[in-house]
Amino acid sequence: MDGGYRGEDFAHWIIYVFRWIVEVVLRPLEKKGFTLLPKAWVVQLTFGWLNWCR
Question: Is the pLDDT confidence value at 54 over 70?
Fold first, then answer.
């Protein structure tokens, strides 16, 4: 997940509601502007499949 969903409150909510463990992927501090984040495509692909199969 991206940096907008960081924080322990969010992580505890995800664990409590869905029983999932999430990993927040942040942009490196030394880089400015657009940076390709590792594993970001996994989240986007998952949400795409979930949206398609609802």
Answer: no
